[in-house]
From TrEMBL:
Signal peptide: none annotated. InterPro entries: Gp5/Vgr_OB, Vgr_OB-fold_dom_sf. This is Baseplate assembly protein. It comes from Streptomyces sioyaensis. Residues 13-86 form the Gp5/Type VI secretion system Vgr protein OB-fold domain. It holds the Pfam family Phage_base_V.
């Protein structure tokens, strides 16, 4: 590579995930970066992650079609690194993020099947920590300043809620004080 070519690819470029099937399980993504490589060329990009080490760290596997930001080490298009994600629009925001008022500090991690971990500073019973499986009607654990609730999900699922000095089972079918 010439010095002129290397300098050309400094900065961030929009890429799209083609495949996340990484047999090495190192977090590599096969991506397309049209602005740099053209429409038809795909490359394997290494992850930049906020935490990594022996048997610890953060591991993210986005779906095919997800938007990723890509940089090239020393501007070299043969050394791609994916450094984060870009949203194509409001539809790319997890539905679990809609549970808090706009501007409320929160952290939401969600999968395409709507399993989610929501940590929210929303005031009242909606705030706290919620671990949800398979969307809003699935099983969940919710911890707030007011209560702790475990539910199998749906209107027919069993639930236990601890609130104050009460234990409420199945929506009030049994209450213990």
């Amino acid at each position: 590579m010439t010095v002129e070519t290397v300098r050309q690819w400094q900065g961030l470029y929009q890429g799209v995930v083609v495949s996340a099937v990484d047999e090495s399980r190192a977090g590599l993504l096969q991506v397309r970066v049209p602005e740099v490589l053209g429409e038809d060329v795909c490359v394997w990009a290494a992850p930049l992650t906020p935490l990594a080490g022996p048997d610890c760290g953060m591991y993210v596997v986005p779906p095919a079609g997800a938007g990723v930001w890509v940089q090239f080490l020393d501007g070299d298009p043969d050394r791609p690194v994916w450094v984060g994600f870009w949203r194509g629009g409001p539809g790319d925001v997890p539905s679990a993020a809609q549970s808090a008022d706009p501007g409320t500090p929160q952290i939401v991690l969600a999968t395409p099947s709507q399993s989610a971990l929501v940590i929210s500073d929303q005031r009242g019973p909606a705030g706290g920590i919620r671990l949800q499986l398979d969307g809003k009607n699935g099983p969940f654990i919710h911890i707030s300043k007011m209560s702790i609730e475990i539910s199998c999900g749906g209107p027919e699922g069993a639930s236990i809620k601890l609130a104050g000095n009460q234990v409420i089972i199945n929506g009030g079918a049994l209450m213990v004080q």
